[in-house]
Amino acid sequence: MARERTPARRRAGALAAATAVLALATVTTASAGPLVPPGGPRAAAPPVPGALSVLSGLSALPLLSGTPPRGHDVSSHQRGVDWAAARARGARFVYVKATESTGYRNPYFSGQYSGARAAGLIRGAYHFARPDRSSGAEQAAYFVRHGGGWRADGWTLPPALDIEYNPYDAKHKCYRVGKARMVRWIRSFSDEVKKRTGRRPVIYTTTQWWKMCTGNSRAFSSSHALWIARHGTSRPGALPGGWRYWTFWQHAVKGRLPGDQDLFNGSLSRLRIFARGH
């Protein structure tokens, strides 16, 4: 089994994280705009928060106010998480790293994933992409076989693809993969996940990386939920590639919860709707 290394997004400074935590006291979901993208295809895409059905045809819903549900994401770096304590501190959802490339599995995944559910958290699995290692379809198949599944039980978030800066070669942030090929790789991963689970993956990325490594492709914005990463600010900022709304926002790498700190763009009831897929 390959040794897990620390992705670049885990290396942000604690000062920026603290700034973000303070700023979140006034964040509302209205800052991201409406929750349902107008005119997006429903039959081919998973619903975004607030959609009543994949075929609903709703164009928009009223904005929400108040504090959105808090969540976090963890990997083997967190090892044994006290899930009951995390829930008591406000966690309502979590993403757990399952796999990387086709040779790494988080050795703590099973306990983390089942422990989160036992504590009453809505949970999902994510895959760290290595576009330089193998095809998107191969990595998606590996991911689904080793924890990246989904079912419409209201407790399971759709699988997520973590695609971002190359943590192993700072000179080649895009893994030596050209923009057009990167878009094809992501599409291949997404198609395989959809075939095996019935859901399109959530895409985790940063605006800068997406612009640099996909040419700011708009190929996924109408059919994939966005998990945007931006730390140390009170808002997620400009979004990449045609996305008008974010579904998850990773706003800090440290905070009250184990691992990275996240928010969901909606209410808890809408988070359950999003998890169910209808």
Automatic annotation (TrEMBL):
Main location class: secreted
Keyword terms of this UniProt record: Antimicrobial, Bacteriolytic enzyme, Disulfide bond, Glycosidase, Hydrolase, Secreted, Signal
Location of the protein in the cell: Secreted
Gene3D superfamilies: Glycosidases
A single GO molecular function term of this UniProt record: lysozyme activity
Annotated catalysed reactions: Hydrolysis of (1->4)-beta-linkages between N-acetylmuramic acid and N-acetyl-D-glucosamine residues in a peptidoglycan and between N-acetyl-D-glucosamine residues in chitodextrins
Record-level GO BP terms: carbohydrate catabolic process; cell wall macromolecule catabolic process; defense response to bacterium; killing of cells of another organism; peptidoglycan catabolic process
Pfam families the UniProt entry points to: Glyco_hydro_25
EC nos: 3.2.1.17
Signal peptide annotation: 1-32
Record family assignment: Belongs to the glycosyl hydrolase 25 family.
Function: This enzyme has both lysozyme (acetylmuramidase) and diacetylmuramidase activities.
PANTHER family in alphabetical order: LYSOZYME (PTHR34135)
Protein name: lysozyme
Organism of provenance: Streptomyces argyrophylli
